[in-house]
Amino acid sequence: xxxxxxxxxxxxxxxxxxxxxxxxxxxxxxxxxxxxxxxxxxxxxxxxxxxxxxxxxxxxxxxxxxxxxxxxxxxxxxxxxxxxxxxxxxxxxxxxxxxxxxxxxxxxxxxxxxxxxxxxxxxxxxxxxxxxxxxxxxxxxxxxxxxxxxxxxxxxxxxxxxxxxxxxxxxxxxxxxxxxxxxxxxxxxxxxxxxxxxxxxxxxxxxxxxxxxxxxxxxxxxxxxxxxxxxxxxxxxxxxxxxxxxxxxxxxxxxxxxxxxxxxxxxxxxxxxxxxxxxxxxxxxxxxxxxxxxxxxxxxxxxxxxxxxxxxxxxxxxxxxxxxxxxxxxxxxxxxxxxxxxxxxxxxxxxxxxxxxxxxxxxxxxxxxxxxxxxxxxxxxxxxxxxxxxxxxxxxxxxxxxxxxxxxxxxxxxxxxxxxxxx
Length: 423
Known about the structure:
Elements: H1 16-32, E1 36-37, E2 43-45, H2 46-53, H3 58-63, E3 66-68, E4 74-77, H4 82-91, E5 101-110, E6 122-131, H5 136-152, E7 158-164, H6 171-182, H7 191-199, H8 210-216, H9 228-244, E8 249-250, E9 262-270, E10 280-284, H10 288-291, E11 299-305, H11 306-315, E12 328-332, H12 335-350, E13 355-357, H13 364-374, E14 378-382, H14 384-389, E15 391-396, E16 401-406, H15 410-417
Parallel strand pairs: 1-5, 7-8, 12-13, 12-14
Antiparallel strand pairs: 2-4, 3-4, 5-6, 6-11, 7-9, 9-10, 10-11, 14-15, 15-16
């Protein structure tokens, strides 16, 4: 028996209402703020992610699905969206458009990670990216888009945390202070953090191990080392967020996991412990476009993990509307009626009536049971007598009533005009 690869999932028909619900809300919210959809390939030149995400990150070192194709090119399944969107921004001349260019995407991403609840090797995200503007008001807008997305789904009891991790001017001072502080704890922090000490010290603050968290609580704070420009940017961001009415806190240990971030970083989490640590987050990446070969171009964005959203929708008892059920089920009795039912179901579909037909020559009782299982609003019954008379019997499944309709009026009746005087 074959099974889905470890860390992947099948989204069954009963799961689809959640996914249709999220996709619809994501598109509505993004459009409300002027974001336009973009879709990029699911694989890219592997060096794109090495340069953007950073060689010292867990993603590049441990998690990328990298491979050589038959032409010998090094490719990687995309582990995140920002680098691909920045590549598309440069490749298609978007720096020449009015700035900021605001884009969103949804789709699958891939990381070789240890599977657990809410963490998969193939996972799905809703991403928004705004390129070409450094105004902290844009930071507040991106954060508001993320918050309103979760709000539009009906999710409650969420926590927004923001921080500033500075820039190339002020971060070296913070990095030096961080190294000095952790130098006295190298024997106490976990093995992974000892590796991060030289390679990526900001990630020391992000460790989830209990002892590392305890040590991190006393570490230097990023906001105490900001230069004047970064401090002013962070102050304006906070003021702009306060104006939206969105509640937020400041988490000085929030750094995010990718090398390209600078200044603003943020995360949105459920307050309930065990509901997965983060629903989504993002931050500013003002040096990324330049790193990929473009001119210095500011940018900011976020990613929302959709599998985690589904977990929290179910936990909070939020059930999206079910997907539409068939309006009509064509049941027939006998071979001559089969051809008439087939013509009728085809005509119904032509005029936009969702309709299905019974297969396999089942009994009428079996077909009615099948129609009930599918949730069909009406069952159209055609037997030899109906064929001879050019009629069809239409049974209203909710009202348990039925009427006879001329065959040539069936499509009009079921298209919403009423059946035998009944809707």
